[in-house]
Amino acid sequence: MNQILRKIFSPILNIFESGTEEYAIKPLSRKILITVSVLFSVLASAVFYLMPDNADAGYFLPIIIFGGIALVGFIVGFLGTDRAVAKIWGSRS
Predict the structure, then answer these.
(1) Which end of the chain is more exposed for a tag (fewer CB within 10 A), N or C?
(2) CA angle 35, 41, 44 (to 5 degrees)
(3) pLDDT, tens digit, for every residue of 52-77?
(4) Is 93 a residue whose pLDDT tops 70?
(5) How many separate domains does the chain show?
(6) Which among 70, 75, 82 has a CA at the least distance from the CA of 13?
(7) Among 2, 12, 4, 10, CA closest to 72
């Protein structure tokens, strides 16, 4: 199942897994990335829930931005390699 999901999300994962430079990753980096992604998804959900019925299109901008950040964080956090997680945090050795 993991390989199927990695193939589906390969366009996103390839961005963060590319490169040959050295990287350093801390043991909690992946867990913190997933936690931050949960926070962004809660934020996007809260904006969507609190949006008025006759809202204009401007209300969807934070939902798209926060939801997109959460989605990328979940994909890299659960499916990405250590290099991808280190690239998200900007970790260099």
Answers:
(1) N
(2) 145
(3) 888 888 889 999 999 999 999 999 99
(4) no
(5) 1
(6) 75
(7) 12
